[in-house]
UniProtKB/TrEMBL annotation:
The lineage of its organism: Bacteria, Pseudomonadati, Pseudomonadota, Alphaproteobacteria, Rhodobacterales. Signal peptide: none annotated. The gene is mazG. Keywords: Hydrolase. It comes from the Bacteria. The keyword Hydrolase applies. InterPro entries: MazG-like_dom, NTP-PPase_MazG-like_C, NTP-PPase_MazG-like_N, NTP_PyrPHydrolase_MazG. This is Nucleoside triphosphate pyrophosphohydrolase. Its EC number is 3.6.1.9. It is an enzyme of class 3 (hydrolase). Residues 36-109, 175-234 form the NTP pyrophosphohydrolase MazG-like domain.
Length: 272
């Protein structure tokens, strides 16, 4: 990995903000950038955050600065549009997160003792966030959990909030029992109910699976990303094995591809 350059971060941030302003200039800017609004840019913001996570998952450190830069651009883009509308600007965004960090870390920036466990710090963090939510008139336990989060991530956050007030299973064993119950209901829906009921039961099963991940202290998004990567890796091994024989997957059948899958799986195990 190359050594980081000695650039001035303040100067580079100022340069990026200026570039974005030029791109949005109604007379001389880029037509595509000028046409965008908060709603049209929001999907790109989510996409760039996922690409950052992907680079980290792959340990692609050479790609990470570029991916983080793409994500930073999203912040600058939203801030520029807000500035044009007289709502806020980039400085307000930076000030908001700086103020929040200072407020949420009284053991670093205030007079509280730093000598406490990570578990106690998490409890203190949640108490501070509760004060913040009260200031926003978020009275309900589940208020403020963003609707735009990936569904699995939002399920975990909703369940964590409910658990704080005692609405939770005692442990993973009870969750596993619930999974068996939901699976039976899904089978019943498949056999006797319509598509809407089937979707509802499938959603219930996914929600409980997310709860199991929480009790097992597993990040379900990361677990599924890794499962996706494993599937991709092994299926590509099937394609490579067939290509050596001058064939493609559509020229094969399930039995043969299953055998090649098992071979790819065994090769991975042997390499561990």
């Amino acid at each position: 990995m190359t050594e980081p350059t000695r650039r001035d971060p303040r100067a580079e941030i100022a340069r990026l903000i200026d570039i974005m302003a030029q791109l949005r200039d109604p007379r001389t800017g880029c037509p595509w950038d000028i046409e965008q609004d908060f709603a049209s840019i929001a999907p790109y913001t989510i996409e760039e955050a996922h690409e950052v996570a992907d680079a980290i998952e792959r340990q692609a450190w050479g790609e990470l600065p570029g991916e983080l830069g793409d994500l930073l651009l999203q912040v600058v883009f939203h801030a520029q549009m807000a500035s044009e509308s007289g709502l806020f600007d980039f400085a307000d965004c930076a000030a908001a997160i700086s103020d929040k960090l200072v407020f949420r870390h009284p053991h670093v920036f205030g007079t509280e003792n730093r000598d406490k466990s990570a578990e106690q710090q998490v409890k203190d963090w949640e108490a501070i966030k509760a004060v913040e939510r009260a200031g926003k008139a978020e009275r309900g336990t589940l208020d403020g959990v963003a609707m735009g989060l990936p569904a699995l991530t939002r399920a975990i956050k909703l369940q964590n909030r409910a658990a704080r007030v005692g609405f939770d299973w005692p442990g993973a064993t009870e969750v596993l029992d619930k999974i068996a119950e939901e699976t039976a209901e899904l089978v019943e829906a498949r056999d006797s109910l319509g598509p809407e009921a089937l979707e509802e039961e499938f959603g219930d099963l996914l929600f409980v699976m997310a709860n199991l991940a929480r009790h097992l202290k597993v990040d379900p998004e990361q677990a599924l990303r890794r499962a996706n990567a494993k599937f991709t890796r092994r299926f590509q091994a099937i394609e490579a094995a067939l290509a050596e024989r001058g064939r493609r997957p559509e020229d094969s059948d399930l039995a043969e591809m299953d055998r090649l899958w098992d071979q790819a799986k065994a090769a991975e195990k042997a390499a561990e």
